[in-house]
Amino acid sequence: MILRFLIWALLSSSVCIAAEPILPLHSVATDERKVALGRQLFFDTRLSRSNEVSCASCHQLATHGADKVPRSKGVAGRLGDVRAPTVYNSVFNIRQAWDGKAIDLKAQVTLPVENPKEFATTWPELIATLNEDKSFVSAFEQVYKGGLSSDAISDAIAHYERSLITLNAPFDLWLQGKGPLSEQAQEGYHLFKYYGCINCHQGKNVGGNMFAKMGTFGDYFGDRGTPIEPADYGRYNVTKREADKFTFKVPGLRLAARQAYFFHDGSEQSLEGAIDTMARYQLGRSLSKAELAAIAAFLESLVGHHQEMTP
Known about the structure:
The protein is mainly α. The chain is 40% helix and 2% strand. The chain has helices at 2-19, 32-42, 55-58, 105-110, 123-131, 134-143, 150-162, 170-175, 183-194, 220-224, 236-239, 271-283, 289-300; strands at residues 211-213, 247-249. GO terms for molecular function: cytochrome-c peroxidase activity; electron transfer activity; heme binding; metal ion binding.
């Protein structure tokens, strides 16, 4: 009888979690040797022509895996076209970059190398620089059959980024029956589903698995007060389809509560301000202060931890 009850309880819990539109995060399989090499490269400024910029310059892992400014500075202080998205939990994204130009993490790693606003170098130049470090060359030869190459560098960094998953968020623990969740956060989750935020922000990463137009119920770019820039066309820059203008990959919200700026253009600086903007332009709704605070509490509960983050 006890065994039957335990089986029933386990199945009931599983069904409950499976029925939710947001699922707990979990680690993914990686090659630890490649992860170690990738970590070295991620923090290595030699990847840029000026030896001043690394992946970690714009994706600051101690905080939220993104930058603390609306647009990051690359070589010679050149500003990027869009806000640097968080690299944490990016393995769960359907594609990488705001416009989805990279099919996966390995493809994304190649983007900043020759971008004049980021690393501003070339693969031959980068590899020649790293080849001067004999210990580095030896380390790559032990892990990769072909040794140090553009493919190996991209693969190693991608493996490291696959390991950047923020686990044990209060929401995940609550969903699994392993921890409490405040009434305000629970109310926020209810509102998040009730108002339809969940239609775009769902799954393991609470987003990152679809594209959506910015400004469904209003002219976001017209109201923004600044001229439209090429990067504002979003997915259109990749597909050249009119229907994709002003369409972007929906960002994951796992670390939204830790962000300094929001949206592809970094135009919003507060979490509740971002929620309010999304409610108005994407849902056609005006939320009360209490509702904004509740949804913000829910988003706060999505924040997990990784060893690279400052406690």
